[in-house]
């Protein structure tokens, strides 16, 4: 599921492949994924333009293609970007194909069509319209504002971290990793955690989990050995810290992975 580190990886991929090339045409293959724009408008506005820069906010990627024109991509449960220099048969799950004048292509792929394709005139306006909180890596997000935004929730701390209106970018997998690294039990009510536990969560998120996941290009196999995510989904997985069995539980409709020995704080 693409979360902040995955989308940051797509951003860097797009920066390395798709900028400064003339867009010959584009094809929308799944109109149901369009948000607030028709296929003909999107195709007309992209035609003849070049992507100048990209931005990411939370789980959204923005590609600028000229004055007040940004393509907006959200990757849903399984979306991804693929750039091809040569002609190659389209993948059945390609939902948007950008054809560049030199024959290269950028394909936005989404198996279950749960993402979004749209346009905006301004990513900051888009963020306000969609009630997105600050990006989890925003340099201006200091501990005080993080604590203010999340600590009065009556929901489980894991759900609080995933609430995009308060903090943009964290989903199911990285919420688990952040709480594991902070030693906090995922089911603890957010408003019952003390300030020092929140400080550990903030530090784990900002200094450890997100930077390492971006460095590893969101591929769990390249994460540090101390990360729980490396063996996520493996029922035989042992805790990398204490060697004990890893447990799962349902929180907010999602499966949480955690170590009952190492994550006692808050229980
Ligand atoms: Zn443990």
Secondary structure blueprint with pairings:
Elements: H1 4-17, E1 23-28, E2 34-35, H2 39-46, E3 53-57, E4 60-64, E5 70-74, E6 80-84, E7 94-100, E8 105-109, E9 116-120, H3 123-129, H4 143-150, H5 157-162, H6 172-182, H7 195-215, E10 247-251, E11 254-258
Parallel strand pairs: 2-9
Antiparallel strand pairs: 1-7, 3-4, 4-5, 5-9, 6-8, 7-8, 10-11
Helix pairs in contact: 1-7, 6-7
Description:
The chain is an alpha+beta fold and 267 residues long. The chain is built from seven helices and eleven strands. It has helices spanning 4-17, 39-46, 123-129, 143-150, 157-162, 172-182, 195-215, and strands at residues 23-28, 34-35, 53-57, 60-64, 70-74, 80-84, 94-100, 105-109, 116-120, 247-251, 254-258. The chain has a five-stranded mixed beta sheet with strand order 2-9-5-4-3, with helices on both faces. Strands 1-7-8-6 form a four-stranded antiparallel beta sheet. A hairpin with a 4-residue loop joins strand 7 and strand 8 (105-109). Helix 1 (4-17) runs parallel beside helix 7 (195-215) and helix 6 packs across helix 7 (195-215). The longest helix has 21 residues, at 195-215. The two termini are 28 Å apart. Zinc ion binds at residues 239, 241-242, 244, 259, 261-262.
């Amino acid at each position: 599921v693409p979360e902040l580190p995955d989308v940051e990886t797509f951003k860097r991929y797009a920066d390395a492949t798709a900028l400064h090339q003339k867009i010959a045409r584009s094809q929308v293959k799944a109109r149901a994924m369009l948000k607030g724009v028709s296929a003909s408008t999107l195709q007309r506005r992209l035609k003849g333009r070049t992507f100048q820069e990209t931005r990411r906010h939370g789980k959204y990627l923005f590609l600028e293609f000229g004055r007040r024109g940004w393509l907006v991509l959200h990757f849903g449960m399984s979306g991804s970007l693929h750039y091809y220099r040569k002609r190659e048969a389209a993948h059945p799950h390609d939902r948007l194909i950008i054809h560049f004048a030199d024959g290269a292509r950028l394909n936005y792929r989404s198996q279950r069509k749960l993402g979004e394709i749209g346009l905006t005139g301004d990513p900051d306006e888009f963020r306000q319209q969609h009630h997105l909180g600050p990006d989890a890596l925003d340099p201006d997000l200091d501990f005080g504002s993080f604590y203010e935004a999340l600590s009065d929730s009556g929901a489980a701390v894991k759900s609080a971290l995933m609430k995009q209106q308060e903090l943009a970018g964290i989903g199911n997998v990285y919420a688990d990793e952040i709480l594991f690294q902070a030693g906090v039990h995922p089911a603890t009510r957010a408003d019952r955690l003390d300030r020092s536990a929140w400080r550990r969560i903030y530090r784990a998120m900002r200094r450890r989990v997100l930077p390492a996941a971006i460095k590893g290009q969101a591929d769990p196999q390249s994460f540090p050995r101390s990360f729980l995510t490396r063996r996520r989904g493996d029922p035989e997985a042992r805790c990398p810290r204490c060697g004990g069995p890893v447990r799962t539980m349902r929180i907010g409709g999602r499966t949480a992975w955690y170590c009952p020995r190492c994550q006692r704080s808050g229980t």
